[in-house]
Amino acid sequence: MSMRQPNAAGMKAITISRQYGSGGGEIAARLAERLNWHLIDHELVARVARELGIPEQRAQGRDEYAQGFIARVVSQFTHPLPTTIDPALRVASNQTEENRYQEALRRVVETAADSGQAMIVGRAAQVILAERRDVLHVRIVAPLPKRITYATLRENLDAAGAQERIQLKDRDRTRYLQTVYHRDVNDPMLYDLVINTGVLSLDQAVDLICQALEDKAQMLSLPAEEVGPAHGLARYPGQPADIRPLTGLTDTQPGS
Asked: Number of C-alpha atoms within 13 angstroms, CB side, residue 65?
């Protein structure tokens, strides 16, 4: 593993989105140590809880979990509402508490990025900070069998238990992003870099992210409209021609 410190001048944060069991959390921890940046993971939950003025353990129950999202707000964050309350008012109160939580989460993520040197794991940070050029967005993935092996090792589970936990966590995170932000967690356009730890080691992933961080930092000096695949390229010397598949491979077959 290369230990050269990347030149990340101007970059404020890295967001790490990960499939459960892909090693994304461990990669984030190693990155934070190597860069000497602040790791924001479960701590973020505590900071949201402090903003809301609620016990931390109650905020943890909400983090990255959409199923039954509104119903749990009242039971976990406030005193129970009277059973005789108008149903319309109950829905409005639930919605207010949900919005309050999401607004607090957004403020914490944005404040972390503004402060700089932030390694933010999960928490929809790739969506909240999507428009910022000074943030690197990374997605960590791996094939399911590799993730089962990881979870059995790290969490002392059998294979069946590990698979069940992986599928539950993945489903929760997918629903959370879809429900709250109407985005697909697997959309590659949300990320600058997608790394498959099924073929690369965690340390190699750290190296790749450091290199991408340095490369994106260098692009900050360019106007946003100049950044892209055309940057630094000249026109083709001649007229490009299309090379297409054989006709029989693309035509629709009768009865298909």
From this structure: 14
Q: Which distant-in-sequence residues (6+ apart) come within 8 Å of 44 by Cβ?
A: 105, 108, 109, 112, 120, 123
Q: What is the pTM of this model?
A: 0.77
Question: What SS3 state is found at 215?
Answer: helix
As a whole-number percent, the residues of the chain with pLDDT over 70 amount to: 73
Phi, psi torsion values for 15, nearest 5 degrees:
-105, 135
Residue pair 191/181 in contact (Cβ under 8 Å)? The answer is no
Residue 93 CA, distance from chain mean position? 29
| 19 CB-contact burial (10 Å; exposed 0-12 / middle 13-18 / buried 19+) | buried
Asked if CATH classification 3.30.420.40 holds for the domain at 13-221, the reply, yes or no, is no
Domain ranges of the chain: 13-221
Tokens, residue 86: 């108008």
pLDDT in tens, 166-216: 999 999 889 989 988 999 999 999 999 999 999 999 999 999 999 999 999
pLDDT, tens digit (0-9, with 9 covering 90-100), for 80-112: 333 443 454 444 445 576 777 778 788 888 888
Residue with tokens 């931390």: 56
Q: How far apart are CA 91 and CA 69, in angstroms?
A: 12
